[in-house]
Design goal:
Blueprint: E1 2-3, E2 13-14, H1 27-40, E3 47-51, H2 57-64, E4 69-73, H3 77-94, E5 99-102, H4 106-111, E6 119-124, H5 132-142, E7 146-157, E8 169-177, E9 180-187, H6 191-195
Parallel strand pairs: 3-4, 3-6, 4-5, 6-7
Antiparallel strand pairs: 1-2, 7-9, 8-9
Helix pairs in contact: 2-3
Protein name: 16S rRNA (Guanine(966)-N(2))-methyltransferase RsmD
Keywords: Methyltransferase, Transferase
EC number: 2.1.1.171
Length: 196
Amino acid sequence: MSRIIAGAAGGTTLSSVPGSSTRPTTDRVKEALFSRLESYGILDGAYVLDLFAGSGSLGVESASRGAARVDLVELAEKAAQVCRSNAALVNKVLGSERVRVHRTKAETYLLRVPPGLAWDLVFLDPPYPLEEEGLAAVLEALAPRLADGAVVVVERSTRSPEPAWPAGLERFSEKAYGETTLWFAEPAAKEDDAQE
């Protein structure tokens, strides 16, 4: 059973995706992750994107903790239905439509994003079978759509290699929690910025 840990909707029980097609982030990892994000001061008023959202638990946790907008992107129909249910629950508690669900492929969604929309925080928790090349393609499509100072968090199996970061993104940290590793990246400094 998953729940929202803190914020306006803290303690709210979330629906989980039936079967074993998704791999929910454990409460232990989620608590450590959000503790780190809170220390960065990135959540309040943030635009958040949760790609390969599964149940949407990371995205709705962000909304509970003050994110202004959260987009949950999930292709699998059962998981997208759970995302809709969890989004509706949190939106009701918050009294706003902060959380939106998009049933589509991650890359397709990124290619259709309206110009000018940039995210402050992005979660990517792709299914383990996703090849490294597929993850690299999503990261490449994502890089130009990030706000200055954005944080990208990639969750993978500890046995998986480090993601191939495209031009425009660079890793600044990683942390392993048992079978899960979180990789943290940020927009790369532009040449103009580096010369100042």
